Amino acid sequence: MSSSSTSNQNDSLEDNETQNENLNIDGKKKRGGSQKKSWVWEWFESDETGSICQVEVIIGQLCNKYYKNGSSTGNLITHLASKHQITEGIKKQDFVVRKKA
Ligand SMILES: [Zn+2]
User: Which end of the chain is flanked by fewer CB atoms within 10 Å, N or C?
Assistant: First the structure.
């Protein structure tokens, strides 16, 4: 006599339905570069934090006047005009750097 025990194996199938909805938004728009670059950028160098005056006050020495980001170009223009007598139309090659005495 033998008794056999049957083990019930419950195979639970987990239905993992993963729906990955990859929405490819293909609506990248490039803003039209209609913004005119101001002439002040001939004289100023801008980075992530601000703009630095690149006018040579004397040979080998830059002005390095710093303007924080957000400063309007009007401020830069005023600086160029009052400190360096530079106005729109003056090209870098026309600007005479004072020689060191
Ligand atoms: Zn300057």
Answer: N
